[in-house]
Amino acid sequence: MKIAIISDIHGNMEAFERVSADIERCSVDDVISLGDHIGYGPEPDRVIKRIRQQNITAVQGNHELAIIKPTYLDWFNRVARKSLNMTLNLLSPQSIDFIANLKTHRTAYGCRFVHGFPPDSSLTYLFQVSDEKKIKALENLTEQRCFIGHTHTLDIVSYGRQGLESDQLKEGLNKLDAGRKYIVSAGSVGQPRDGNNKSKYLIWDSSDDTVNVKYVDYDIAAVVEKIKAAGLPQEHAKRLW
User: For residue 177, what is the DSSP state?
Assistant: First the structure.
């Protein structure tokens, strides 16, 4: 089985369309989205509609959480709060209903899928968690592999007889060790923050237990203009470059 794993689209339809086309060329068996489909970007409703149309399995991100439970807006900085309030006005009732029904995590193909940190956090960042808590989380995982988003970076954490290991995922094929448990951070489709402005997504191949990190070009300038036209905070546009 080949599973495409996408995360943190953030209303960036230009990037999502290019990634979707790349996924189609790769002939995968399923696509799973790790949340934060909305927020920051200019086309959140189009993104949600595409997720629904393609019947993509998705989980709740922290931006979706704030839409359905506004008390969580206090978790965000001032600019992000402004952006989320504007995002709410860009969403159709159907999209809001879809967001309200997202689960915090999914399990499939012997893997766990969650936005923030296992087992089911939409808010906790991987880099906030101590090594001791990472070990405990991995020991408690029923699944051998857990895929997360939220950080917008490509990270891999594993635990086995040799202890805890942490590294950056490289572009292309990354071979996993059958004797170790993993937390794999999928980067971001719509707003990478790893020093490279291309969209990122993963393809996990269960047959040979590899993670293929895919880099995809998209029209950043077009998204920047859409952010300006929507009146969204300009910080969101600058961050894309």
Answer: P
CA distance 187 to 210: 16
Per-residue pLDDT reduced to its tens digit, 178-237: 999 999 999 999 999 999 999 999 999 999 999 999 999 999 999 999 999 999 999 999
Q: Where are the domains of the chain?
A: 2-240
Task: State whether residue 154 is helix, strand or coil.
Answer: strand
Distances (CA, A) of 193 to 12, 154, 163, 180, 239: 14, 9, 28, 27, 8
- CATH superfamily membership of 2-240: Metallo-dependent phosphatases (3.60.21.10)
Residue 200 and residue 18: Cα distance in Å, rounded? 11
- The one-letter amino acid code at 139 reads E
User: What are the DSSP E strand ranges found in the chain?
Assistant: 2-6, 30-33, 57-58, 105-108, 111-114, 145-148, 154-160, 163-168, 172-175, 181-186, 199-205, 210-216
